[in-house]
Structure formats: C-alpha cells, structure tokens
Amino acid sequence: MEIIYRQGVWMAEALQLRTRSYEDFWLVASHMGDPKAAVLLVFPVAFYLHRRTGIAVIWVAALSEWLNLVLKWILFGERPYWWIRQSGLFSENPPEVQQFQSTCETGPGSPSGHAMVTGAVWWVIVSSLAAFFHARTGSKLFAAVPYLFYAVLLGCVGLSRIFILAHFPHQVIAGLLTGMILGVCLNRSVPEGRPLLFFLGCSMALLFGALLLYSALQRIGIDLSWSIVLAKRWCYHSEWVRMDTAPFSSLTRDAGALLGLGLAQFWKPGGWPLPWVPRTLCLALSSLALHYVSSFQLPTFPPLLFYSLFFLKYTLVPQVVMVFIPGFVHLLTAKPKKD
User: Fold this and answer.
1) pTM over 0.70
2) Which positions are catalytic?
3) In the chain, where does DSSP find H-type helix?
C-alpha cells in the first residue's frame, strides 16, 4: 500500500500545481459530491420534477452512505492529508500541497463516500432522465446525453477529492464503481407508498446495525477512533475538524432521513397534485427552508445530544419537502370549491 499511497500523493501534488487556478471549481465539485448535498440540494429538485425519483434519491443516498460507513470501518484506509506527515516518508522531499476547509474529514478513507454516494444517487437521476428523453424523442443518441453528463460529473467529483487531499485515487475509483453498482440495484426497488413501519424498521436497522458492528469491532481490539485522532493531529486548522464529518454523523443522517421519508408518506400518502408553477414555488421555498435547517448550529457537547439533534434535523428534511411546503402552497393556490 505504501507504493500506492506514494503515487497518490504525487498525483495530488501534480493536480494541485497544474490546476491551482481552478481551485474554486474543485471546491464546488467536492461540495456537490457531499452526501448531505444529495439530501439537501438534489432531493428537492428531483422530487418536484418526478416524485418517484425524489424518493429514490433519499433511499439510495441513505443506504449507500450507510454501506460506505461500514466499508470504511472494515477497510480502514488512510487519507492523504494526514498520511503525508504521519508516515514520515516525505521529511526530506515534502510534496507541495495544501489543505482546504473541506479537507479535514474525520472518518477512514476507503472507499470515498463522496464518490460512492454521487455514483449511486446520480445514476438514479440520469437513468430517469434518459428514459424520459427516449420516450419523448425515440432517439437513443439523445437518451445517451444524461449518461455523458453522469460520466463528467463523476470525473469532476473524483478529481476534486484528490485535489483537496481527502482521498487517494484508488479510494475514489473504488467509491465510484461501488456507487454505480448500488445505484443500479437500489433503483429497482424504491419504497414508494410503503407503510411507516417499514421505514421505522429500516431506520432502526441502520442505526443499531452500525452500533452493533462498532461494538463488535471495539471488543476485538479495533479502535475506530484512530482516524479522528489523526485528523485532529494533522489538520492545519483545528476548526476545520467538524463533528458533522464524523462517522456517527453519517449514521444519524441516514437513519433520520429514512424515518423522515416514512413519516412524510404517512402524513400525506401520494402528496398533492400541484401544477408546474406551484411546484416551482415549492422548490424555492423548500430550498430556503433547508438552507436554514442546514445552517442551524447544533451544540457539540455532549456528543449524544449532538447526534440526537442531528438525527432529528434530517428526519425533518423529507417532511419539509414532501409535506409542509407543498401543503402550504396547496393551501395558498387551491381554488375554492363552488357550492
């Protein structure tokens, strides 16, 4: 692995040196690949365009991020930003690289979560777009355009993770391939219209399944906090190490989002049949509401309180998009019935 890690560091250095002027682009690409972006940014757009696709986005994002967490606990995997200095192999010839605010994630590195979730979630979207284009035009060439966009997007997200020193190239490739496979498989069984008990069971299965695995690994002597220690030690700025990048934050986000998806379908099965103009208004209001939900600062101590509130925060997201905002807009735009 040392040879692979070395080559990855030199690739990251070359990428930074040659594309330094595109730094803002890489940072935006990395942000778009963030698993929370799938929930807060991609999900509302997909939902108001096509209900089933929106539900699939939440479903696929939650399951793929949870599986990524489990794989990281099992496979470990260093991150470039800490391995460069922790390994002690570059004391005489240190690479000319820099860290960024989004660099200092605290979980293990393999496989890349950004790449894996992006590969899974965007497969759902582009396959839906391709089917729509083919049905409307009958052209296979036109239907291939979304897949071309998909390939470009994956390339940009993958390179951005290497650029900011969050991942080695092989971790990105592993994440992309795993995400694509998950996207294909999970998109075949979207839980639209399932009862609340199904989502409650899925949410608790993710939560307690991961906790049981964590306890089992701890019992056999594996310290799963090793990556957090290295992140705090080698990140250039301590404030860049945030709790919302910790493994348990991913876990509570996924479990909360699935429970919220179930509650949203329980409160209003089928939703409201809104025309395009009210749906556009819903998208604008939902985006504004989710911006405030995302930016709301949670207390980080004690950790149990933070993770509990983080769980509730993402339980709220699907309900805002699927129930609260559409219900409000329907109330404003519905024509009164004549006696």
Assistant:
1) yes
2) 114, 167
3) 2-18, 23-32, 35-37, 43-49, 51-75, 80-86, 113-137, 140-143, 145-163, 169-186, 196-219, 226-234, 247-267, 276-295, 303-319, 325-333
